[in-house]
Amino acid sequence: MSNAIIPLLLDSLASAALIFFAAVGLTLVFSVLRVLNVAHGSLYSIGGYVAASICLFIASRQLNPYLSFAALLFSAVLVAAIFGPLIERGLVRWTYGKSEAVQILVTFGLFLILEDLQRVIFGVQSFYEDAPMRLLGTSSIGGVVYLNYQIVLIGMAVVVVIGLRLLINHTRLGRLITAVVTDREMAQSIGIDTNRIFILAFSLGVFLAALGGALATPTSGIAPGLGADTMVLAFAVAAIGGLGQIEGAAVASLIVGLARVLAIYLAPSLDAVAPYAAMLAVLLIRPYGLFGSVTARRI
Amino acid sequence: MPTILAAAAVLMLAVLPVAAPWLQFVLTLAIAKGFAALGVAVLLRAGLISIGHAMFFAASAYGVAFLARAGVNDLGLLLILSVLAGALVGAVAGSFLVRYRAIFFAMLNLAVSMVFYALCAKLYGITGGTDGMPVPVPTVFGVVLGEPAFKSVLFYLSLGLMVFVGVAVQRYLNSPLGHALSAVHTNEIRLEYLGIPVWAVLLIAYVISAALAGLGGAIAGFAIGRVVPDFAFWTASGHLVLIAVLGGIGGVPGAFIGALFLELLHSAAVTVTDSWNLIVGMTLIIVIMFMPQGVYGLFARKEASSL
């Protein structure tokens, strides 16, 4: 039993960790900008494409393969630096204060544009570069063999949760973000540059999504349609945790990961249904998510 | 005046496939999506944005496929039963979904439709998985038709239904029940104090909108000849909302104008480039930013200013 379920559990948790990166970015952007970015999943897949391209370049030039770890991080930073300010300044800021329907539609339009841009630039074949995963190798505990890379993924998700919490509670930037989230007008009137906070928060969200995509390339590869799939999964996780809740997103991705394990164990054909069923069940009872509340501070 | 304009437009649509036969499929599909977008637009009246209406579209198309497999083989009967199937799914989903508002309503519709999508894609034994199910050419009132003849019948039937259902929905929107929808949008509590049960108003609207999406799905199923889970994917729902918004506040004609605009744009774009989503996305953003009343707003501007 344990021999069968532990690799399965690890596998699910590793994929849950990847979704968590996308979901926590989504939730962060929503809490600061109050915009649900439907194009968020595309930034995840763009991160993946960029990372795969750089890793393939490293492999083709026969550079030190350990550079590919740096490449994963670097591609996320690159995507965030380019797309974060561009999208926030160029598009999203025009929707502040507009109805949710408008915000969802504008970002949906952006999603369509980004999906096609990826198709034009990277083609329709799937990318797969597993150098980082091979380098880390496998371990075996109690006769169960698993990939070290998966442990790294789960570890990084934990690091991101703690890092974000530290950033928000214990740094000047975090205080400023909290102020903007709590009362945007008041923050502005006491001299906080809200535009700067918006750009930073949005870019941080893009970075997290792109990081998820970059880290996903070695395990699952990148193919067209990944952005759309990731979007709705990230959305499910963010909604289960409560939009705007960082720890909520972490717990929710655990729930989704475990639901998948359970589904694979009990009814293998239903594993793709599990995240959405979990989302539906949670939202019907608590529409504001497990950790969200209608009035509480939203970060 | 608007009636004459509408009649002229319908007449033009009826004649177009005679001049350019390849347009017939495009127009049938546009009308099918127009029905579904009209369903979304009905809910938009109440300020409710549903990112899940592709589910009803797909549910009804699957309904046709299942009924055809079970031996039901008449176009009329199939259409009626599948629209009822769409409405039934709508009544079940709506009974709990209409309690929610704003982003929660959007999210829950998305969740329900994605459960439906995943089930359709995964239950290979029942739905054929991602291969989908074939929709055979049915008989029309007992008459067995070849495929080209059936497609023509389907097109003119859809056109007739567009007028008939369009008028019916227009009347519904102009009725007190329809006006209550906009009242929900402006001030829901006031409506409750007036003694109008908001829950019932919204449930009726939800069932109507599901039935409209179902009608569109059934027509699309017949026109394409196959139904696949992608009918219910969230991007399909997004496209329906997009059409409803493109049509703008134009009420019933708006949804169909939006759908025609999009489908014609699609067929024009694919001859030039593969990146047609790019064009649609840009069009959508431009329309929202600069023409908040939708494409219909271009035609209706004079009318609106004279009010």
Characterization of the model:
The complex is a heterodimer of chains A (299) and B (307). Chain A starts with a helix and ends in a 14-residue tail after the last helix. Chain A has helices at 2-33, 40-60, 67-90, 100-122, 131-136, 148-170, 172-182, 184-189, 194-220, 226-241, 246-266, 274-285, and strands spanning 138-141, 144-147. With 299 residues, chain A is mainly α. In chain A, β1 and β2 form a beta hairpin. In chain A, strands 1-2 form a two-stranded antiparallel sheet. Chain A is globular. In chain A, α2 (40-60) crosses α10 (226-241) and α11 (246-266) packs across α12. Chain A has one domain: Orthogonal Bundle (ABC transporter involved in vitamin B12 uptake, BtuC), CATH 1.10.3470. Chain B has one domain. A two-stranded antiparallel sheet of chain B has the order 1-2. Chain B has 307 residues and is mainly α. Chain B is globular, with a radius of gyration of 19 Å. The two termini of chain B are 15 Å apart. Chain B is built from 14 helices and two strands. In chain B, α3 (54-70) crosses α4. Chain A binds chain B through residues 36, 38, 91, 94, 99-102, 104-106, 108-113, 115-117, 119-120, 228, 231-232, 235-236, 239, 243, 269-273, 276-277, 279-280, 283-284, 287-288, and chain B through 44, 47, 49, 51, 96, 100, 102-104, 106-108, 110-112, 114-115, 118-119, 121-124, 233-235, 238, 241-242, 245, 274-278, 280-285, 288-289.
> Secondary-structure element sequence of chain B?
HHHHHHEHHHHEHHHH
Tally of extended strands of chain A? Answer: 2
Briefly note the structural class of the backbone of chain B.
mainly alpha
Helical element count of chain A? 12
Radius of gyration of chain A: 19 Å
Helix content of chain B: over 70%
Note the beta-strand portion of chain B: under 5%
Order of helices and strands of chain A: HHHHHEEHHHHHHH
Distance between the termini of chain B: 15 Å
Number of strands of chain B: 2
Q: How many domains comprise the coordinates of chain A? A: 1
Count up the domains of chain B.
1
Query: How are the strands ordered across the major sheet of chain B?
Result: 1-2
Report the C-alpha radius of gyration of chain B, rounded: 19 Å
